[in-house]
Sequence to fold (76 residues):
Amino acid sequence: MLCSHLSKLHRSYQHIILSPHLDDAALSCGGSIAAAVAADEPVLVVTICTAALPVDAVFSLLANTFMRNGACRRGK
Fold:
């Protein structure tokens, strides 16, 4: 996702989580993220230190389910 100005993120998401690595947000504040999503509060998790996924990346069944059901896109 590209964003031209940080204020756009502030207006779109009630919670912005900065995660150093892919699993850090889930391990450190997964319960808070789940509670916010359950309360229909938009959450954005920004992973700072990871490589871009390859074009032909294969996702797990759970990840595909989240993406298909829009669970990862509530903040849009």
